[in-house]
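YM 10:42: Glyceraldehyde-3-phosphate dehydrogenase sequence, as discussed on the call
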Amino acid sequence: RSDIEIVAINDLLDADYMAYMLKYDSTHGRFDGTVEVKDGHLIVNGKKIRVTAERDPANLKWDEVSVDVVAEATGLFLTDETARKHITAGAKKVVMTGPSKDNTPMFVKGANFDKYAGQDIVSNASCTTNCLAP
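YM 10:58: structure's back
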């Protein structure tokens, strides 16, 4: 989608390994674009992406790179309280990519997405749920 821009990635993987995995994905094949690492940043098709390896989301300084939405995909921050650290760090919204472990609302496209009312922290349930949704 042309309206989505990846501006930062937080992962404990080394940026060089991330670049390699993107270039040579074993499922999707070789990436049809350019990928390099420069000064600790990923450069994908000429776009600079900040790379960090921070264990505490409160320290991520999302506001420095104008992050609107964080995809929380670690599986570690699945409550409103823990995911809210991303908001504290400057993100506007957080989408948990796994089922929440508290009363954080879960939305699934094709099932109940029409109930989304702009909440700043949500879960998109699980990959299994999403693959079975209408």
